[in-house]
Amino acid sequence: MTPRSVLRYETWTLQPDREPDAEPVLYAMQCAVDGEASPTSEDFAEPQDWVLRHCGQNPSHHTYREVITRPWRTWRQT
After folding, report:
1. Which of 26, 35, 41, 60 could form a disulfide with 69 if both were Cys (CB 3.0 to 4.6 A apart)?
2. What kind and span of H or E run contains 52?
3. pLDDT tens across 18-46, in order?
4. Which residues pair with 11 in a beta bridge?
5. Strand-pair partners of 30
6. CA-to-CA dists, residue 41 to 2, 9, 12, 61, 71, angstroms
7. What is the spatial distance between Cα 75 and Cα 78, in angstroms, rounded to a whole number?
8. Is 45 in a helix, a strand, or coil?
9. By percentage, how much of the chain surpasses pLDDT 70?
């Protein structure tokens, strides 16, 4: 008996998950100078406040990264 394969090509869609039960979008900021990071929060104002405190305590730290955790979902198109 010879092995046989069946291939089926399908179209999938990928998009941010905006369903009512989706995980929340989370925000954080990270200092690019020393790697310290703010706590994550659903409210961007909290990481932003952390940046202002951090640069106030470290006047030479001027560069930061925004870290966003956003839930995504996929589904097969029929």
Report:
1. 26
2. helix 45-57
3. 999 999 999 999 999 999 999 999 999 99
4. none
5. 37, 65
6. 56, 40, 31, 22, 14
7. 9
8. helix
9. 99
